[in-house]
Amino acid sequence: MTTPDPASSQTRPLDVIVLAAGAGTRMKSDLPKVLHPVAGRPMVGWAVKAAQDLGARSIVVVTGHGAERVEAALGGEGVAFARQDQQLGTGHAFLCGAEGLSGDGDVLVLYGDTPLLSEATLRDLLADHRAEGSAMTVLTGELPDATGYGRIIRGAGGEVERIVEEKAASAEEKAVREFNSGVYVMDRRAPELARRIGNDNAAQEYYLTDLLELYRAEGGAVRAFKLSDPDEVMGANDRRQLADAETVMRRRITQNLMKEGVTIQAPDTVRIEDTVQISRDVLLEPGVILTGQTVIESGAVIGAYSVVGDSRIGAGAIIKPHSVLESAEVGAGADVGPFARLRPGTVLGEGVHIGNFVETKNARLDRGVKAGHLAYLGDVTIGTETNVGAGTIVANFDGVNKHQSSVGAGVFIGSNSTLIAPRSVGDAAFIAAGSAVHEDVPEGAMAVARGKQRNVEGWSRRYWGGLREKVDVKLPWLSGWLKKG
């Protein structure tokens, strides 16, 4: 009989193996199951994040189905990978991941398709395992009906004697409500004992649950740590379960934000990814979607049904309803929308006003710039306090290349003007309404670039009179006007 792990209980290092090799056929997708996103992270990313938050010394993700895509998605996360080329069961997958472990720490087994398992629960599991001096601790839960799960059979002293799979359970064992989550924390002997797991079963697979008997045969104590919320180990095996997991995660995120001082007017209608950072006193109106590396500073307001991705919103800024921001930066006190679109590369300075149906792309607008209506501003820098009239277009594309333009400070651009890039407009210049500016405008000058107006009297009656038959049939009101003449 081997002796229990002699290492100090609280100082042992932690290694984490994430099993993520399954095909996930019930998802009915070309995308590997563990890469389906939940609240902005692929499912397997949640397991990796939990391991990182626990301070794991090493994290090994066992890949198989779609291995290249899974490994590419987790590149840069500081994890190692082990390939399970043949799907021979959970025990075999564990051994694939354990090959590179140092063999002197606790080993935690997680899964790439259970994104709801929280760091807090895992910390409690690990602390209980170490405090009790267990060789193996099984994370369990309790349900009124545990159909589909392996059942936990405890001994008189509360230790786990057996895990019985449902297909092998008696009627009495099926009545047990405590189930096996499949999450385990084990002492350093786990890799060694796992090599003894056999495949003498109907499926000829190597089951990780067999470690329980191997530990008990070695004199190790096997205990259970029961979840307070069994939903934490809810797997996402199909699209319905994926949606359920997303709903739970969205609720967690909004509740945590509200605890930290964020006002969310209709929490069930918003979608906020885990990667988003929001300061206190921010107001989120109904239907808001916040994704990616978005940062929202204190006092900002995000209007109803706005979509903000990978953007920074300054303190006190207002994003009015139905606006879309992609990789943009909005300065303090600025306001955007409604129905505005800020595309990648947009940087708005302090107090900038972007109104309804204004689109910007790779545009830098300095402090106090105003573009109130129906404009397109692409590949342009605009100086402080410049006014951009309704219908202004920066024509930045010549059919082959994009060109950059610059507009100085204090410029007034009249309505329905077009700047044909590349153009430079000096400080305090004026551009007359309706101008198509195709030359640079010096500082303080006024540009008038439009044809001289000429009124041809009686033209309409002559033109429409020649189309009298069509007018009579399709435009009766016009026919009546012609007759009056």
From TrEMBL:
Cofactor(s) listed in the protein's UniProt record: Mg(2+)
Positions of the UniProt region annotated as Pyrophosphorylase: 1-239
Binding note for cofactor: Binds 1 Mg(2+) ion per subunit.
Residues covered by the Mannose-1-phosphate guanyltransferase C-terminal domain: 273-358
Main location: cytoplasm
Sequence positions that bind UDP-N-acetyl-alpha-D-glucosamine: 19-22, 33, 84, 89-90, 111-113, 150, 165, 180, 237, 343, 361, 376, 387
Keyword Cytoplasm: yes
UniProt entry keywords in alphabetical sequence: Acyltransferase, Cell shape, Cell wall biogenesis/degradation, Cytoplasm, Magnesium, Metal-binding, Multifunctional enzyme, Nucleotidyltransferase, Peptidoglycan synthesis, Repeat, Transferase
Segments forming domain MobA-like NTP transferase: 16-140
Catalysed reaction, written as an equation: N-acetyl-alpha-D-glucosamine 1-phosphate + UTP + H(+) = UDP-N-acetyl-alpha-D-glucosamine + diphosphate; alpha-D-glucosamine 1-phosphate + acetyl-CoA = N-acetyl-alpha-D-glucosamine 1-phosphate + CoA + H(+)
InterPro entries, A to Z: Bifunctional_GlmU (IPR005882), GlmU-like (IPR050065), GlmU_C_LbH (IPR038009), GMPPB_C (IPR056729), MobA-like_NTP_Trfase (IPR025877), Nucleotide-diphossugar_trans (IPR029044), Trimer_LpxA-like_sf (IPR011004)
One Pfam family linked to the record: GMPPB_C
Residue ranges, annotated region (N-acetyltransferase): 261-485
Function: Catalyzes the last two sequential reactions in the de novo biosynthetic pathway for UDP-N-acetylglucosamine (UDP-GlcNAc). The C-terminal domain catalyzes the transfer of acetyl group from acetyl coenzyme A to glucosamine-1-phosphate (GlcN-1-P) to produce N-acetylglucosamine-1-phosphate (GlcNAc-1-P), which is converted into UDP-GlcNAc by the transfer of uridine 5-monophosphate (from uridine 5-triphosphate), a reaction catalyzed by the N-terminal domain.
UniProt record similarity statement: In the C-terminal section; belongs to the transferase hexapeptide repeat family.
Protein name: Bifunctional protein GlmU
Species this chain originates from: Deinococcus piscis
Lineage: Bacteria, Thermotogati, Deinococcota, Deinococci, Deinococcales
